[in-house]
Amino acid sequence: MNLPIIQLDLLRHGATEQGHTLRGHIDDALTAEGLAQMQASIDTHSNQNWHVIVSSPLLRCAYFAAPLAQRLACPYIEVEALKEMYFGEWEGKTTQSIYEQSPEELANFWQCPTQYSAPQGERLIDFQTRVLNALKKLIEQMSMQHQSRALVVTHGGVIKLLRCLAQQRPLDELLSMQAPLGELVTLQLSTQDDQLMIQEMYQ
């Protein structure tokens, strides 16, 4: 079944208390700076007529998304599958500390994430599958509700993955994709023969 085109404005969370670590599923909070980064992106966005606001359940996303939905009187849902990639034994560690302990493992992951993952961490193929399945369900639900625009508050890994797919770049380039803290990226999503089609919109 082919579904109508859905526009998703993807907002990455801002700076957090644990700063320059691989946070993954660690539920650290936003700093005041992080909140301000996200609010600035929303304030400068030309069209805020979202039909629904969707968020990762992790605090660094939901703490901003839920009050925003309330202020805008907009439906709000949290989607577990839009959490960041899980980094296993590297959760909460800086890349410098990982490099000092396991330089080869870190280099393999950074250069070829399709083949290497963090120890006990989530494989990229599994991360991709859960994110894409979640988005397919989201656009199906939105289509049923005659909704065409959503704000999705999520994580750097999710945004990098979707930008990589939209630009049809090799997935091994995922970690070099840009997804600055607190910034917003717009995508158009649709399905064709049950395949998710992703296009990046440049403003």
Automatic annotation (TrEMBL):
Pfam families (UniProt xref): His_Phos_1
Coiled-coil annotated residue ranges, if any: none
Keywords, in A-Z order: Hydrolase
Domain of life: Bacteria
Protein name per UniProt: Alpha-ribazole phosphatase
Organism, as annotated: Acinetobacter soli NIPH 2899
